TrEMBL record:
The chain crosses the membrane at residues 28-48, 54-75, 87-117, 137-166, 178-204, 210-229, 261-282, 332-354. It comes from Cryobacterium zongtaii. GO terms for biological process: phosphate ion transmembrane transport. InterPro entries: MetI-like (IPR000515), MetI-like_sf (IPR035906), Phosphate_PstA (IPR005672), Phosphate_transprt_permease (IPR051408). It is a multi-pass membrane protein. The keyword Calcium does not apply. The keyword Ribosomal protein does not apply. Gene3D superfamilies: MetI-like. This is Phosphate transport system permease protein PstA. One of its GO terms (cellular component) is plasma membrane. Pfam families: BPD_transp_1 (PF00528).
Amino acid sequence: MSITMTASSPVTNSLTAGKLPKNAPMMVLAASWLVVGAIFAVIFLSGATESFNWAGTLFFGTVLYCIALFLFSYFVEGTRRAKDRLVTALVTIAFVVALIPLISLVGTTIVNGLPAFMTPTFFTESQRNVVGAGGGALHAIVGTLFVTGLATLISVPIGLLTAIYLTEYGRGRLARGITFFVDVMTGIPSIVAGLFAYALFSLLFNDPGIRFGFGGSVALSVLMIPVVVRSSEEMLKLVPNELREAAYALGVPKWLTIVKVVLPTSLAGIVTGIMISISRVIGETAPLLIVAGFTASMNYDLFNERMMTLPVFVYNQYASQGADSQAYIDRAWAGALTLIVIVMLLNLVARLVARTFSPKLGR
């Protein structure tokens, strides 16, 4: 009597079929953590340590998981599948490890900064004549938006036009020289940009004590321009040459091809690069501390007097604590949380802009 196998018969994941069950990795991971946790529990109960080692349990348990999963897969599924599972586990662990500092940073900032962040006066008052608890960071928020906004207005046209030149027109020594200096500028320390802006305006106005918001915008633009150039250049290079050639074949001039074809096609990537550059400089403290200074009062004039920004506000609150030190520390955490919220909102706006204006490829 013959047994027929239909094509629709489900494949059972069993050890006898030469394949581990679907939930095997999670089971092995949980068992590894339990085994290592039991070892550390015995060490803790014996009095050798003062507390249970959670970090050691997770780390050594994960190491044991990689080894155990590889061995189980090797004996059941073979060498090729075992290597694949091992590499997959290592990549996943590396991703989780990379996320741990970010989650820890955001979580710590939210926990410590939320109480002062939720006070009504934090977004409606400055620190003028405030000693101890009270006041807010309105002057720093306004200063950050003004200084960073002007730096963006300076950097985006220069960086984008430079990227267009390097991609569409640049050839020879000039293009290589620009590329070299852009690479050099990408790695300069932020304090060097602040010293450059301070020295420039000190010489122009013959005032060694000059401090104003526009100088901070110039310092930030020095840091933003190479990021905008590099990111925009890479996005422009991704535009297929066939699109350019099709436009040229229709008699469209080169400059109009760039405006109507190249830039709209790469708009999503360019906007993302601009947001990365803003995120790169919005938290800079050293250049703004040097050339923009700090103040406890409101200042809406970028070209006159000192202007407070959120990074400098956080630094000043932590470094110059008064009698009620906890109030200063709470305001510092709230300022850091405000910076994170601003960057998050900017990225959301950038995604909306990129989705709205990027070319629709669907038919």
